[in-house]
Amino acid sequence: MSLDGAVTVVDLKELAPLLNGIRIISNNVNQVAKKANETSNIYSDDVEKLREEVGQLCRTVSQWLSTVTLTKP
């Protein structure tokens, strides 16, 4: 801002579903970690589900970033 005087505004309203997805995945990670700590064991199905969720989240972020338009106020 101090060098070229440009301000970029990004509409973040579209991020609500993404943030919700992050909350869901965080909850699942915590549940798997708790189970692993309690039993000293972790199920491959749980890990696979987390991988799928993180992959979908990454695709969603990528898609959003490719469509975001920067506007000047």
Description:
By secondary structure, the chain is mainly alpha-helical. It has helices spanning 16-39, 44-67. The mean pLDDT is 79.
Attribute tags:
73 residues, mainly alpha, 2 helices, 0% strand
Give the arrangement of secondary structure elements.
Layout lengths: L15 H24 L4 H24 L6
- The helix content is 55-70%
Q: Could you describe the largest sheet, including whether it forms a barrel? A: none
Give the end-to-end Cα distance, rounded to a whole number of Å: 13 Å
Question: What's the gyration radius in Å?
Answer: 18 Å
Give the averaged pLDDT, no decimals. 79
List the helices and strands in order.
HH
A few lines on this structure:
This protein has two helices and no strands. With about 70 residues, it is mainly alpha-helical.
